[in-house]
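User: My collaborator sent over this chain with a note saying "see what the structure looks like." That's all I know about it. Can you take a look?
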Amino acid sequence: MGEDHASIHQCLTANKPSNMVMDDAILNNGRPTVIGRVSRTLPVIPSHLLSFDSRNNQLALAALLQIEAPLQQAISRFGASRIAVVIGTSTSGISTGEQAYEEKLKTGEFPADFDYRKQELGNCSDFIAAYLGLTGINYSISTACSSSGRVFLTAQRLLNSGLADAVIVGGVDSVCRLTLNGFNGLEALSNQLCRPFDQNRNGINIGEAASLMLLSKETRKIALLGAGDSSDAHHISAPHPEGNGAYQAMQKALLAANLTTDDIGYINAHGTATNLNDSMESKAIHRLFGDSVPVSSTKPLTGHTLGAASATEAAIAWHILNYQLPLPKQNCEQKAPDIEITLVEQERHLGNKAIMSNSFAFGGNNITLIFGYVHE
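Assistant: Without extra context I'll predict from the sequence alone. Here is the result:
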């Protein structure tokens, strides 16, 4: 969507993704697919942290630099041992590992800077802590596509338990061949821009992203009002057809936020554009909300950023709330007959209500987050 606020807002309001590109070389079978690839030149990892040098950590650093000033203020106030880091990811530095193995196939040797630890799931949270000189709790969560939503729930627990005074949360995932070929093996990839909730939807686009936030108990204009999770374990890769786990996660988030369905002004859906996901999510939302709340999926603008999806969409929610942007439109060519919910098709605004954001993952790992204004 872009790195600066103006680019992000242009993408959200014009509904024109500039970085969703066709790639016909990344899949083993040569089939073309659309990818959401970050096009900017990424920052260089500092020389004293070269053991962390990977595209994934470069993406993390690009996001980190945008909030470095408030992070340094928090460090000065709370101390380096009282700020935790919890990051969601599913790919970590696998893309860098793939490049290293390609080099070994050509030359017989791994590159001199190859370090297997770059592929470990905890590498990104370790990098962020090392870059900022933090000595408190840090770890990563990997529950597939709900990974960076669960970090918010974890952060709440760390803050409420007194184990941390502030928590850096977010998600970072980079495009890699392993993930793309895996989804292609599941016959889940689309060869065109994905079309959530459309009658002709035919699969997902994979993307990459980094999104970071700083959470604390200090009062701010916009807050995480509630979070709800569930683990229905219906199937290793398919969601429950009636959306039972999705329904439970949304219910729990409303309860945690002490809100009712009337308080929600927009739902950013998981909306992957696969037949099973969109159908079950529509059923779950309709069971809880009826057709009273506008819904859309922003994945045509970003691709499905997997472990970074929840945090990416949390950032979108923050932008809508902070800048009072119009709700992202769905722009279906033809709404599918199995979709009962009200989609955002005309310009609409949130008003003074809250935003619900859904992320549903393999194995039934579901998370719902609610963001809204703090009314004193």
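A starting point for your reply to your collaborator: The longest strand covers residues 222-231.
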